[in-house]
Amino acid sequence: MIRVLCVEDDPIVQNFIRVFLGQEAGMELVEVYRQVEPALERLRAGGVHVVVLDYFLSTDRNGLQLLAELQQSSGAFPADCPPVLLHTAHPTEDLAAAIMRLGGRGLVEKSRAYKELVPAIRAVVAGGEWWSEGCMADLAGLIPPDRNSFRLLIGDNSRGTRHTLEESLERLGGNATYAFTTDAANECLTTGEFDLMLLNCRLPGRTPGTELLGTLEQRHPELPVILLGDSDSALWGYRPIENVRAFATLPVDRVTMERVLRECVPALAMPSAF
Question: What is the spatial distance between Cα 59 and Cα 160, in angstroms, rounded to a whole number?
Fold first, then answer.
């Protein structure tokens, strides 16, 4: 169970967080605090796994100042300071860079919270980071070239998908190995090691895609898979397979591609503090 503490002074956002996280399986909202001091007192009591912190607080401290205070006084907590995720209506490159320098683990744009807040919380608790789509373009230049290097096996023979992936990998980093048939994919899985696989459920070859997924489930249960298909209905039957962590309907655009990549590999959720 992920225990979330939130500091937010907007009543509308407070209610959204209470309802939204209250119905999310595997998450418990410890409390939503309007004031800083009660939140700090609760943090000192322990049992909090992640802090969601508003940037614009109508107090004597904004979110960045509170983040700095949390990092500097981490010895006052029962364990290390929980990871801190900021959210704001106006994400910028300067704000993201400041959060990184202060040791924050991510930034969520409030207008995208209904899509990003839950995966962002899961990413930072798992040791990764999350930076909202709203500041992705500005942040691209801040990522060290080897920061997000990972190994991706791509089982797909579509030129359009490969083009989209090349754009995403250029932004996120990573090393791609392409398999244009299920036979080639099997060979790659036998001889190589990968952090993630992207698989078209209609990939041609002597081994049907369904059998390849069965092989993955038996021999590589730890390998997450993003499954591509022509329609939601075509993908539905694969949902019980544990390896399958995300789905994308073809043709897939770059924004969707990057979102599912980051959902499956928390380390891709963006760069660590400088």
Answer: 50
Nearest C-alpha neighbor of 135 from the set 167, 106, 157, 163: 106
Sign of CA dihedral 64, 51, 71, 93: negative
Terminal alpha carbon distance of the chain:
30
Q: What is the pLDDT of residue 233?
A: 55
Question: Whose structure tokens read 């090691």?
Answer: 193
Q: Is residue 77 classed as helix, strand or coil in its secondary structure?
A: coil
Nearest to 266 by CA among 126, 115, 170: 126
Asked whether 258 and 168 are in contact (CB, 8 A), the reply is: yes
Residue 253 DSSP symbol: P
Length of the chain: 274
Cβ–Cβ < 8 Å for 241, 213? yes
The Cα 44–Cα 40 span in angstroms is 6
- The pTM score is 0.51
Those residues whose C-beta lies under 8 Å from the C-beta of residue 23, and which sit 6 or more positions away, are none
State how far the Cα of 2 lies from the Cα of 25, in Å rounded to an integer: 9
Q: What gap in Å lies between CA 150 and CA 169, rounded to an integer?
A: 10
In angstroms, the Cα distances linking 66 to 53, 84, 272 are 9, 10, 19
Backbone angle region of 35, left / alpha / beta, with phi > 0 → left and psi within -120 to 50 → alpha: beta
> What digits encode the pLDDT tens for the residues 56-106?
887 667 888 888 888 776 555 545 678 999 988 888 777 887 887 888 888
